Amino acid sequence: MTHRERCLAVIEGRPVDRIPAYTPTIACDVAGAILGHDVHTGSPTLWYAFAKAAMRGRNAAADFDLAVTEALIDLNRALGIEVIRYGYRNNRVPTRQLDAYTFLYGDPEGIYQVWRWDPTVQNFSRTANTAPPAQPEDWPAKARAAVAGLDRARENAKAGVGVWEADLQQRLGDEMLVVGSGGGFSIGLEEGALMACVLEPGAVADLLDCQLELNLLRADALIERGITVCLGGGDMADKNGPMYSPALFHELMVPRLAAFAAHCRRIGLHYVWRTDGNVWPIADMVFAEAGVPGYGEVDYDAGMTSRTLRERYPDLVIWGNISSSVLHRAGRAGVYRHCMECLEGSGGTRYFHGCSNAVLPGSPPENVLAMMQARDDYGARS
Fold it and tell me: Cα–Cα distances in Å, from 164 out to 96, 161, 227, 259?
């Protein structure tokens, strides 16, 4: 099998010669240690590096993007990872650089944010925001603005979605499976958004309907450009469970997820719904009622294990289950055992092997190699 054929076979539940691998993001320092030179691949280190490049001008930002693409390809080849995607980026261009580590985004005289790089913990985070907190009564105006802006949003969706992915898939051919982004649904997790679900449910529903319409267009654009997998979703849970009630999720989210999943089935696009956290209280709604076929950011540490998921949803495609914490803190032998547990729990079918989320900065590179060695050894045993 070619690498791409292997990935497509796993999605369809057909036998494969080995379990394919996928990891959403590998931090820059870990990737650099594996490749033997500095690279930009993922994590907040990437966001900080992009901010610096963007301040040098449009050409520098474009050159940075090209370097990221080459680094991702090199890293996948070095590790034998079959699935490639453009990881999460903070693509906003700063208005002003305040010092070596600090950037201002927005209007310095009005609404702006300040982001700062902390080299001790390798994190690029927001330290100031002058925007007033959104209130529930703001949601009707938000909904009206979203509806009014749909025409422009439709054109942007048609024009821009999947272009990078399609170009990369054509370049790589069957060497890797390039996956796109789509199917993101979110009501927001800030206090105002959650209160709006109760006080302004009609406006929240209108906003979700706008998200659905644009996601349908994005799905069509991906298929037209030859991309057959889209990853979306929206963070809505932590280790204790969903951050809003299952009843609200069922009322507001399930109908839109079901409509999008059905559309993806009709056009032949595999949809991967993604969120961290413990989603057992809503899992039947997503994977049974809404019919979502794929699940990403599968949080082992929150109780979402490959074994329990496979027992409950035999046909669910699981996109990674290795704990970021184990990869970061355990020794090589502990990582290997953990990976074998996840591989065996998957049943050897409809499973992509890899970290459920980001390989964190400071993770030992030998642990990442152990993760891949477990995949290879499991394939040799099966």
Answer: 28, 8, 11, 26
